[in-house]
């Protein structure tokens, strides 16, 4: 089932990429495995999917040692600074840095580990009171501060737009995130100046996100099915 779903999603990625004149190979699929048992992750690995997204630190602690060698985890949940040590150690990217305090904590632990961690800045692009993320107006200032932290690589932006009824309603949010990244990119604030990462789009709307420039999509239910409560 998971193998089939992955196959289908890769086809949809290719369609959306072609529609917007992009190379499907430049789009990374993060399989969001939160609340699913590690057996499902192993099944996905057997189907060739090695990049996963997790929201809860205790699940990262439990699952990471059971992943195959190539298994990688992006942290995509709210991260408390007192859990930064574990994230720094076990995750390949933290997509949800939205305040300097968290950046400082991650940087400190990465320095101890002798490691450089890739991070994204989570932007609350729709000013949704129910969503975390730095406000659009504060993003440049946060990135300037994170830029000083030598063990972090600020690779781009991530967003979770407000809940909408149709995927099309997310388009403007995705577009606005891309425009913001382009604006900040010209200031040379991202690790890869030419192509900042844009993590946006989930099961219901990743095709729209790709059309608007997503380089990372985070897809859970469309791969693993309904999440256990
Ligand atoms: C759960 C989650 C996803 C995946 O959502 P689906 O609708 O299951 O694809 C993506 N991003 C974040 C931040 C999430 O918490």
Summarize it.
By secondary structure, the protein is an alpha/beta fold. Helix content is 39%, strand content 17%.
Account of the protein in words:
Helix content is 39%, strand content 17%. The protein is of the alpha/beta class and 229 residues long. An eight-stranded parallel beta sheet has the order 7-6-5-4-3-2-1-8. Strand 4 (93-97), helix 5 (100-113) and strand 5 (117-122) form a beta-alpha-beta unit. Helix 4 packs across helix 5. It is globular, with a radius of gyration of 17 Å. The relative contact order is 0.16. The model has no long low-confidence stretch (mean pLDDT 96).
Q: Structural class of the helix and strand makeup? A: alpha/beta
* First-residue to last-residue Cα separation: 20 Å
Helix residue percentage: 25-40%
What is the strand content? Answer: 15-25%
Question: How many strands appear in the DSSP assignment?
Answer: 8
SSE ordering: HEHEHEHEHEHEHEHEH
Small molecules held by this entry:
pyridoxal-5'-phosphate
Principal-axis shape equals globular
Low-confidence stretches: none
Quick tags:
229 residues; alpha/beta; eight-stranded parallel beta sheet; 9 helices; 39% helix; 17% strand; binds pyridoxal-5'-phosphate
Secondary structure layout plus pairing:
Blueprint lengths: L1 H18 L8 E5 L5 H9 L4 E4 L2 H7 L8 E4 L8 H7 L2 E5 L2 H14 L3 E6 L16 H9 L4 E7 L12 H15 L11 E3 L6 H6 L4 E4 L1 H4 L5
Helix pairs in contact: 4-5
This protein binds pyridoxal-5'-phosphate.
The site of pyridoxal-5'-phosphate (PLP) has 12 residues, from strand 8 and helix 9.
